[in-house]
Design a protein that fits this description.
Keywords: Signal, Transport. The protein is 44% helix and 13% strand. It has 455 residues and is α/β, with parallel strands linked by helices. Helix 1 packs antiparallel against helix 15, helix 8 crosses helix 10 and helix 8 crosses helix 19. It is globular, with a radius of gyration of 22 Å.
Length: 455
């Protein structure tokens, strides 16, 4: 806190009281213990990390987040400003973070800190020399608060660059309670049961599955969950690194399985054409905007669906909206994660101080209080989560060990795994348009992957 700078009043979040009716039976939950306990009060009152005086210094932080996600992150930045005296400007990047940051760097005006949603982009930026290694204080917080797996995801060739501030469990099925009750179906543990339930829901007069196919990243998540469950984690790692080709028989099997859903237009809200025209936020509102007579019964995606439910509908999580794990295709239910790594693009004390703060339990707790946020920070007091749904997801994520895999498309070079209108996004959109052409989808995926991976 700089001298002479007036201390702003704290802005505390109200903790929600909604609890999840059905306890999440995530694959790794069996290993979960009780979360850490802490003193009562809000996370902004927990000052466990010492930050330097940065009075008058200005920083830019760039991230893809908009709407409620941006507003919630702004509360974390507000606390950093209050403790240090710095002024932090949030800069939205748009969907293509790599292109935005690359253009800023080439123009000589990069942001001080960026939140990278793709491991592949972190590696690309590190190879180009665009990233600044974490300082000693940030590394100390990282070592104390994060499992080795999350630390390794933020490193490149042995050097630590990133802090995974935000994580996501991307293996969840969210459903409209009224639609399930009217059809007389329950939560599906297997893929076969999921398809049978979808058909029963269709017969009841409600379009079963809402797919946000206009956003190609949602389709990569569908594929990854099926592939991880069906082919297993070792094959998943090989495909993620392009050590096997996308023409491999295991990819054919996974696409064929996904085609069991995409190839039956009666199971998709709006059919294939409608799914391709539906953006992710709309896929959620189709399912929950009308709690009694929804346009669709189920929407698949990560824990962040809860943000859209809370902001764009009147549905109550745990009552009108409930959730179950992605149904298993093979022997185990998949747990696919995503996340956003904070990296420094400029040198100096201020960017390192922000990374140190983002690696702390303090920052994680402030974000957790807002809802719609999951932290991989294992030391954070999980009582700060506003409801049982996020607390259960977060606990499972922290305790998952080697049972989870990071989003495959986010590990790839951006040209293949993270660019609108090309690469994996485009190939899977074409597959949604024509799900009978498995071989064509494989060829398109392999052609794009070989070019992006340069092998």
């Amino acid at each position: 806190m700089g001298p002479g700078r007036p201390r702003r009043p704290r802005r505390h979040a109200t903790r929600g009281a909604t609890a999840l009716v059905a306890v999440l039976a995530l694959a790794s939950t069996a290993a979960c213990g009780e979360g850490p306990t802490g003193a009562p009060g809000t996370a902004s009152q927990q000052e466990t990390v010492r930050l330097p005086d940065l009075d008058g210094e200005k920083l830019q932080v760039a991230a893809v987040w908009t709407g409620a996600e941006q507003e919630n992150f702004r509360k974390v930045l507000d606390e950093f400003e209050e403790r240090t005296g710095a002024e932090v400007e949030f800069v939205p990047t748009g969907d293509n973070v790599a292109t935005f940051i690359g253009s800023k760097i080439e123009g000589g005006a990069p942001p001080d800190v960026a939140m990278l949603p793709q491991v592949g982009v972190l590696h690309q930026f590190a190879e180009k020399g665009w990233l600044k290694p974490l300082g000693a204080k940030a590394r100390k917080q990282l070592g104390e608060n994060f499992a080795t797996g999350w630390q390794e995801l933020g490193a490149h060739e042995g050097t630590q660059y990133g802090v995974y501030f935000k994580a996501a469990n991307k293996s969840l099925m969210w459903y409209n309670t009224a639609a399930f009750e009217a059809a007389g179906v329950g939560e599906a543990k297997t893929w076969d049961r999921f398809l049978k339930n979808a058909q029963i829901i269709s017969d009841s007069g409600v379009e079963p599955v809402s797919v946000g196919g206009a956003d190609g990243w949602t389709l990569t998540d569908w594929f990854e969950n099926i592939y991880l469950s069906q082919a297993g984690p070792q094959m998943y790692d090989k495909l993620a690194a392009h050590e096997i080709k996308w023409t491999h028989p295991s990819v054919k099997e996974a696409l064929t399985t996904l085609g069991e859903l995409f190839g039956n237009k009666l199971l998709l809200s709006g059919g294939n054409r409608g799914a391709l025209a539906t953006a992710f936020p709309e896929s959620v509102t189709k399912t929950f905007a009308d709690t009694e007579a929804p346009e669709a019964a189920i929407v698949f995606e990560g824990d962040f669906v809860g943000i859209n439910i809370g902001n764009d509908t009147n549905a109550q999580i745990g009552e009108d909206a409930q959730v179950f794990p992605f149904p298993r295709v093979g022997e185990r239910a998949p747990v696919v994660t995503g996340g956003d790594a904070a990296v420094a693009l400029r040198g100096g004390k201020a960017p390192q101080a922000l990374l140190t703060f983002l690696a702390s339990t303090d920052a994680a707790g402030i974000a957790a209080e807002q809802g719609g946020f999951i932290s991989p920070n294992k030391k954070m007091n999980r009582d700060f989560y506003p409801g049982d749904v996020q607390r259960e997801i977060a606990t499972a994520l922290v305790k998952a060990g080697n049972d989870f895999r990071f989003d495959m498309s986010d590990q790839a070079p951006a040209a293949f795994g993270g660019t609108k209108g090309q690469g994996e996004w485009k190939a899977l959109q074409d597959f949604l348009k024509n799900p009978d052409d498995v071989a064509g989808a494989q060829q398109a995926l392999e052609s794009s992957a070989a070019k992006a991976f340069e092998n």
